[in-house]
Every structure is written in structure tokens, then in C-alpha cells.
TrEMBL record:
Coiled coil: none
Catalytic activity line of the entry: 2 superoxide + 2 H(+) = H2O2 + O2
Manganese/iron superoxide dismutase N-terminal domain boundaries: 2-84
Protein name listed in UniProt: Superoxide dismutase
Pfam families in alphabetical order: Sod_Fe_C, Sod_Fe_N
UniProt-annotated binding residues for Mn(2+): H27, H77, D160, H164
The gene coding this protein: sodB
UniProt cross-references to PROSITE patterns, sorted A to Z: SOD_MN (PS00088)
Residues covered by the Manganese/iron superoxide dismutase C-terminal domain: 95-193
Amino acid sequence: MSFSLPDLPYAHDALAPYMSRETLEYHHDKHHLAYVNTGNNLLKGSEWEGKSLEEVVKGSYGKNQGLFNNAGQHYNHLHFWKWMKPNGGGDKLPGKLEKAITADLGSLAKAKEDFIQAGVTQFGSGWAWLAVKDGKITVMKTPNGESPLVHGAVPILGADVWEHSYYIDYRNRRPDYLKAFVDHLVNWDYVAELYEAASK
Ligand SMILES: [Fe+2]
């Protein structure tokens, strides 16, 4: 199975003003496409050809850095587009997810604060996460193309903190980007869907 670039689940200008058309044109149409194309080239003839994306990500981690970087970023971005929606964010979470967040992280407000803090303190490029590990929701951060998948956990929400995700709209203000992501963009229904699947 080779990698392919999915369409965005909304128009390029649908997330403005929190994420602009220009950012999505570069981030989705160019950066994600480059991960897909480079990943496909590196996958060809490797021992992971024909495996599922998750198997490629987990298998290549620590073994084939070039393939891992691109497959990992393809996996992360596939979800990233779905982790956002127009008029997202807010405090209306599916009940089961909100209960789990409150039980495992203290409160929704605390979870958001810790998630933003993880993104702010990720030195250089990387991601901030909510993930399910050992049955509990936890806040994580990873560098470059890594994700909770290669650290024994299942990601349910991720924010891309590579500069290509925010520099056009926020310049160096990564904290402002993360606050806007949490307050106005997060698609909590998709987070809940992944949480359900991860807790089965
Ligand atoms: Fe990205």
C-alpha cells in the first residue's frame, strides 16, 4: 500500500482567521505532499512495502530514519487535518471523553493548559499530544515526526508545532497559535472517536 495525500475535510479558507488559506496551501498542499512523495520513494523496495501505515511507522522507528520521518509525518498529518474543524474548540465535549479527561487529567481546563504547555515547551519542531497510555489519557510531546505510537501509546489529539504550521499566521508566537488551536479549531468529536477506539 502506498501513501496518498487526502483532500482537506474543509475548504482551505474554512479555518480562518485562526489558520489561514495560505498556511493550509503550504502545509497541506506542499509539506504533507512532500512527506507522501518522499515516503513512497523510500518505502519502495524496503521491508515495510505492503504493510499498513501504522506498521510502517512503528517498524521503521529506530531502524530507517528517512522512511520513519516521512511515514511518521504522513500519519501525524492525516489525523491533524481531522483534528480541526471550522467553529471547533470550546467546552462541549462528548460526555464520555470529558469524564475521562476530568478523571485522568484533573479537569478540561487543566488538560488544555497542559496540552498548550507541552507544545510551547517542545524545543524545536515537533508535536503536542493527548494520548491513551495504559488505559489513561495523558499529555505528551514529541520531536520531529515522532508520535505517541512509537512510545507505547495511542494519539487521540495532536497539534503540529513545526514552524510551517503557524509562522505565516502567528510568526514566532507559538503560544498564541496553540491557544487558538484549542479554543477555536479542535474537533472534539474526532478526538472522542479515537478515544473510543483506543479504549476498546
Ligand atoms: Fe506539519
